[in-house]
Amino acid sequence: MVSRQVTILNKQGLHARPATAMVNTAAKFKSEIFICRDEKKVNGKSILGLLVLAAECGAVLTIEAEGSDENEAVEALVNLVNDHFGMGKSS
């Protein structure tokens, strides 16, 4: 299993559009992917799961993956978060 922590940088946090981008990215990988915040751990391929985390700007999440492409999956998701989910830094 591979895991890395990321900080949500978007001003509006992890709302529907960024959650959709995360799910779409996670779905490209065979590995099981989980996103954790505090004591909550949700399926990284579930929009509803991600929205339940209520991750505002500054929230710290842990991205976990386990499977044949776990390293690539975690790296892709970390890059997505750090890139403001492709929405630009003003979002």
The name of the CATH topology is Histidine-containing Protein, Chain: A
Percentage of residues in DSSP E strands:
25-35%
Q: What is the first-to-last residue Cα distance?
A: 31 Å
> What is the total domain count?
1
CATH architecture verdict: 2-Layer Sandwich
Strand count, sense and closure of the main sheet? 4 strands, antiparallel
Task: Tell me briefly what this model is.
This protein has 91 residues and is of the alpha+beta class. The chain has 3 helices and 4 strands, in the order E-H-E-E-H-E-H.
Task: Tell me what the structure shows.
The chain is an alpha+beta fold and 91 residues long. The protein has a single domain, classed as 2-Layer Sandwich (Histidine-containing Protein, Chain: A). The termini are far apart. The relative contact order is 0.31. The model has no long low-confidence stretch (mean pLDDT 95).
Features:
single chain, Histidine-containing Protein, Chain: A, 3 helices, 91 residues, alpha+beta, 25% strand, 4-stranded antiparallel β-sheet
How is the topology of this model organized?
Blueprint: E1 2-7, H1 16-26, E2 32-37, E3 40-43, H2 47-52, E4 60-66, H3 70-82
Antiparallel strand pairs: 1-4, 2-3, 2-4
Helix pairs in contact: 1-3
